Amino acid sequence: MTKFVRTRLIVMNLLQWAIWGAYLTSMGNYLGQVGFGANIGLFYAMQGIVSIFMPALMGIVADKWLGATKALALCQFIAGAAMLSAGIYGAQAAPQFPVFMALYTISVAFYMPTIALSNSAAYSILEQNGYDTVKDFPPIRVFGTIGFIASMWIMNFCKTAEGISFQNTHHQFIISGALGLALTLYCFTLPSVKHEKKSSQSLMDALGLSAFKLFKDRQMAVFFIFSMLLGVALQITNGYATPFISHFQALPEFASSWGAKNATAIYSVSQIAETLGILLIPFAMKKFGIKNVMLTAMFAWVLRFGLFGFGDTGSGVWMIILSCIVYGVAFDFFNISGSLYVNQRTSGAVQNSAQGLFMLMTNGIGATVGTLSAQAIVNHFTHEEMVNGIVFRVGDWETCWLIFAGYALVVAILFFIFFKKPDKNEKVLV
Which CATH number fits domain 202-430: 1.20.1250.20, 3.10.20.30, 3.40.50.300, 1.10.1740.10? Predict the structure, then answer.
C-alpha cells in the first residue's frame, strides 16, 4: 500500500482544509442573518484566543500519549461534532447567541490544533515510507488549498430550496462538521505511525513563552513586536470581506451585479493567490532579502485594504479582485519569510520555542486584537439593514477599509525605520 501513500495524504489534506474553507470566509454573512452581526469580530477573535494554547497543549498530548494520527482523529471528532451541532442548532429561527457561541468555541478549540497535527502526521507517514518531506510534502499540501477553495465555491453556488446561497445559511456549519467527522474516520485508514514517547516540550516551551528571553536582543525584540502589530491585520478580511462584498446587493445601482451575489466566489481568488504567492517566495528572498520581502508584505496589506475601500461590484470590481490577488503577497510574504527569519536567527533548544512565539504574536495576540478592534470600527461606521429578506451590513465601509489601510501604512513605515537589514554575520541566538 506504500505506493498509494501520497494519494492517501492528498485526501487527508483535501478534507483537512475543506473543513475550514466551508465557513471561515462566509461565516460573517450567516451571523448577520441571525442577529449576531455585531459580534463577527468575536467569532474570529476566538480562533486567535484558542490558538494561544490549544495547539501546544494537543501537541504535548500527541507526543506523550497518542501520536499525531490518533490525536488528529480525536480533535477532528470533537471539532466536527461540535460544529455539526452548531449548524443544526443554527437552523432554528432564532438561535441564542450563548449556545451557538459555546458550540462554535468548542469546535475551533479542537480544530486549530489539527493544522499542526495533520502536518506532523503527514511528515511521519512520508518518512516511514521512505519519502523526502521537503520534496514530497509541498505538492501534497497544495491539495489542501484546493479543498479550501472547493468548499468556498460550494457555499457560494449551492442554494437552499428557497434559493438562498449556503454562504448566508447554517448549512456551511453542517457541511464543515460532517467533513470533520468524515476525516475522523479516514484517519483510522491511514498508514500506521510508529509512536515513540518523547520527552516533549513543556507547555511553556510549546507556547513559545520560554523564547521571551530573545527580547534581550534588540533586533529580535523589534521583529516580534512588529509581528504582533502586523498580526492585527491577518484576520480582518476573513471576517468582513464577504459581508462587505455582499452588502452591494442592498444598493440599487449594484443590486443585480454578479459580484454582489457571489461574494465567497470572488473572495476565493485570495486563496488562489496565496498558493501562487508561496511559489514566489524563494525568488523574492534571494533577490531582495528578508527585510524587503517583509516590507513588501506590509505595503501589500495597505493595498489590500485600500482597494477594498475604493472598490465596488460594478465598474470598480477590478479593485476588489486585485485586492484578492494582492493577498497572496500580503499573507505569505510575511508569515513564511518571518518564520524563515526566526529559523535563521535561532538554533538549538530555543528554535522551536521561537517559532511558537512568532505564531503566538501573529496568529494569537495580534489576530485577536485585530479582529476585536475591527469589530468596533465596523460596528461604528455601519449598521444592519434588511433588503428582500436578507440582512446586509450597510454604511460607510470606505472609511472602515481606509482606517485599516492607514494602520498598515503606519506599521510599514515604522518597520522600515526600526528594523535593520539582517547582517549575514549576525549572531545566532540559542
Answer: 1.20.1250.20
